[in-house]
Every structure is written in structure tokens, then in C-alpha cells.
TrEMBL record:
<feature type="signal peptide">
    <location>
        <begin position="1"/>
        <end position="23"/>
    </location>
</feature>
<keyword id="KW-0029">Amino-acid transport</keyword>
<dbReference type="InterPro" id="IPR028082">
    <property type="entry name" value="Peripla_BP_I"/>
</dbReference>
<comment type="similarity">
    <text>Belongs to the leucine-binding protein family.</text>
</comment>
<protein>
    <submittedName>
        <fullName>ABC transporter substrate-binding protein</fullName>
    </submittedName>
</protein>
<dbReference type="InterPro" id="IPR028081">
    <property type="entry name" value="Leu-bd"/>
</dbReference>
<keyword id="KW-0732">Signal</keyword>
<dbReference type="InterPro" id="IPR051010">
    <property type="entry name" value="BCAA_transport"/>
</dbReference>
<dbReference type="Pfam" id="PF13458">
    <property type="entry name" value="Peripla_BP_6"/>
</dbReference>
<keyword id="KW-0813">Transport</keyword>
<feature type="domain" description="Leucine-binding protein">
    <location>
        <begin position="25"/>
        <end position="367"/>
    </location>
</feature>
Length: 385
């Protein structure tokens, strides 16, 4: 009789075991594995994989990721976010590649009252009921572009032309340039735009050159961002050429080729980790990221985008650990609320792109430690003073 009772107890434990797994923390991750922004989305996915390899368990609970491809389409980004929350019951959202897509996803997250970590830059958004709900890992564009304007001013440049995307990212870059340039008494004398899907930017480049600027800033990213650089090189442009952190990409370098040489870009410290001054706290995390990336993906990172999603994972892990300490259980509205509150109480979390401290009034969370200036030389990034 005791033997039978013992077997029944053992069986009950075995049946109960799968139920424990329901406490897994669920992360809904959306990225563009296909479409025009895939040169950003694929690295984003590899960065999440590196994050899982680096931290796979939080507060004794396993973390499970459900990943969806939005095909670089903003409508799909929002639809995927809703699916992950309403059907998969994820605790947090991370994503996506491209500013318009990320904005659409963030809007859905706010409506559903689910915390989100954006891994592409987005413009100002409403906090929503009970919010704010969204933080981001990419440096704010004004902070990055200020590095360009400071460099221009230090070299006595007085005018600049802008050639960038027609979308929200192009607007964000142009607005940041206009504001910083005005304060530095530098005039923006041309504003030329093109779509990511365009195959030629000849007309835009000719108009920008006709304005005779002292320098040109490029407001495109990934592979489409290479078009103006190539067109300018073909027309013999030799003046200062500034890019942005979205050009720190193997795909951009491959397509732009020698036309990329000399481009000066503001970017995060991870790109030149070995060149950082001794004692910089970001250096160790950046090197840890590279090791985790190789472990997860079987190759070394060659882009800037994967580190943004990796930093998103670090921020999430830190917040989730503190949310778990409240006693709230993953999979419940209480845990989502605790996770949101923890996100906006993040203090000095060292990542690869910066040191993050979020507050309800600051969804960016970084300062000047998150920006360096590099110059492209034969496919490598040289740290500038």
C-alpha cells in the first residue's frame, strides 16, 4: 500500500513538473528578417541570440523568446506585436528594425499596456494610460548628431547639405542636424531626400553639390544608405562627408566600397572597443558581447545593430530581476506592471553602446559616454579624438 502511495506521489510530481515551466519569462521579439531593412533586422536577431547566450536565466526562471519577422513593414510590426501579446501572452516586447516599424510597434505596445524596449531610434511618443511603457537602447539622434556639428565647428566648416531618407528616420536626422547646426552658427543649405527603395539618387546629389556646401551629411542607413556615398564619389566629391550610426554595417561597407573611405560617423563605443581608453567600463561589456555573439552565431559581429538588441537584452534582464523580486509572477498583468516600473528605475546598467539610466522623463537613458566619432578607412573604423 505504501509502495502504491509512493508511486502516486511520484506521478503527481511528474505531472506537476511541466506546470512549473509556465513560469518562464516570455519575450516577444519582432525584427525585419526580410525586406529593405533586413540588413538591420538580421543583425538585431543575432544580437538577441547573443543576449540569450550571455544571460539565459533570470531570478531562477528561464527566459523564452518568441521571434516574428515583420518583413520590414510597419503594419506587420504592429500586427506581430498584437499577436505576441494577445495570443502568446508575452511579458515584454523588444523590437524592431527601422524607425517607422519601431514606432508602429511602440504605438501598439502602449495601447496594450505592455513594456517595450525599442532597438531602433524613434521620435517622441505619448506615454499612454499608466505609462510610460517604452524605452530605447539607440542613442538619441540629437546626441549623435551633436558630435558631427562639434567636429564641423572645430574644423571651421560653415555650411552643410543633407541627403537622407524620406521617412521618419530621415526627418529625425535632419531635424537634429538643423537644431544643432543653428546653435553652432552653421547653415544647412540643402535638404535632399530619397526613398529606401530608390535605385538612384543622382538628382539629389547634383542639387546638393550645386549648393556648394562646405560639408555633406548622409541621412541613410544600411545598404540603401550607400547610394549617395557612391554617387558623390563618382562625381569626384572630395569635401568632408559625415554619416551616422546606421552606416556602421558590413552590408553598407560592402556596397559602398572605396566610396566609404573618409566618412566620419558618430556611433557607440562598441565599434572601437579595443581603442577605448583604459578603464572605460564599456570596454569589458563590449568584449563580452563579442564573445557571446560568436558563441551564439558562430561568427564575429561586423555591425552596430546587433549590439543595440544585445543592450536591450541586458536592460531587460536587469529590470526583470528586480520585477521578480516584487513577487509578481511572469505571465500576469502584475508582472508586466512591475517590469515597466523596473525599466524606468534602471540605474547605471553598462552596455556596449552606453551606460543606461532610465526615468519616466527619459526613455533614452544615455549621456555623452554613449558617443564616439570614427572615420571609415578601408573597411575599418578609426577612433577620432
Amino acid at each position: 500500500m505504501n509502495l502504491i502511495k509512493g508511486l502516486l506521489v511520484s506521478s503527481a510530481l511528474l505531472v506537476a513538473a511541466p506546470h512549473v515551466a509556465q513560469a518562464d519569462i516570455l519575450v516577444g521579439f519582432v525584427t525585419g528578417l526580410s525586406g529593405p531593412v533586413s540588413s538591420i533586422g538580421i543583425p538585431n536577431a543575432k544580437g538577441i541570440a547573443a543576449g540569450q547566450a550571455y544571460i539565459g536565466e533570470i531570478g531562477g526562471e528561464k527566459v523564452r523568446v518568441i521571434q516574428l519577422d515583420d518583413a520590414s513593414d510597419a503594419t506587420a510590426s504592429a500586427r506581430n506585436a498584437r499577436k505576441l501579446v494577445e495570443q502568446e501572452k508575452v511579458d515584454i516586447l523588444i523590437g524592431t528594425s527601422g524607425a517607422p516599424q519601431t514606432l508602429a510597434m511602440a504605438t501598439a505596445a502602449i495601447e496594450m499596456k505592455v513594456p517595450m524596449i525599442a532597438v531602433s531610434p524613434i521620435a517622441a511618443i505619448s506615454n499612454g494610460e499608466g505609462g510610460p511603457w517604452v524605452v530605447q537602447t539607440p542613442q538619441p539622434m540629437p546626441l549623435l548628431v551633436q558630435g558631427i556639428v562639434d567636429h564641423m565647428k572645430a574644423h571651421g566648416l560653415k555650411t552643410v547639405a543633407f541627403i537622407g531618407f524620406t521617412d521618419a528616420l530621415g526627418d529625425l536626422l535632419y531635424d537634429s542636424l538643423s537644431q544643432s547646426a543653428k546653435a553652432a552658427d552653421i547653415k544647412v543649405i540643402a535638404n535632399e531626400r530619397y526613398a529606401r527603395s530608390d535605385s538612384s539618387v543622382t538628382a539629389q546629389v547634383l542639387r546638393a553639390l550645386a549648393a556648394r556646401p562646405d560639408a555633406i551629411m548622409l541621412g541613410g542607413t544600411g545598404t540603401p544608405g550607400a547610394l549617395p556615398a557612391i554617387a558623390l564619389a563618382e562625381r569626384g566629391y572630395k569635401g568632408p562627408l559625415y554619416g551616422n550610426n546606421g552606416m556602421i554595417s558590413a552590408d553598407f561597407l560592402r556596397l559602398a566600397g572605396k566610396a566609404a573611405n573618409g566618412i566620419i560617423c558618430p556611433t557607440g563605443p562598441v565599434i572601437a572597443a579595443e581603442q577605448l581608453p583604459a578603464g572605460n567600463p564599456i570596454q569589458k561589456v563590449a568584449l563580452d558581447f563579442r564573445a557571446a555573439f560568436e558563441k551564439a552565431n558562430g561568427e564575429a559581429p561586423t555591425d552596430a545593430f546587433s549590439s543595440y538588441s544585445f543592450d536591450g537584452w541586458l536592460v531587460f534582464a536587469d529590470a526583470a530581476k528586480r520585477a521578480m523580486a516584487t513577487g509578481a509572477k511572469p505571465g500576469t498583468p502584475e508582472f508586466r506592471t512591475a517590469l515597466r516600473q523596473a525599466l524606468f528605475a534602471t540605474k547605471e546598467v553598462v552596455g556596449t553602446q552606453g551606460v543606461y539610466t532610465y526615468t519616466p522623463a527619459d526613455r533614452h537613458g544615455v549621456d555623452d559616454r554613449s558617443r564616439i566619432m570614427v572615420q571609415i578607412e578601408d573597411g575599418k573604423y578609426k577612433l577620432l579624438p
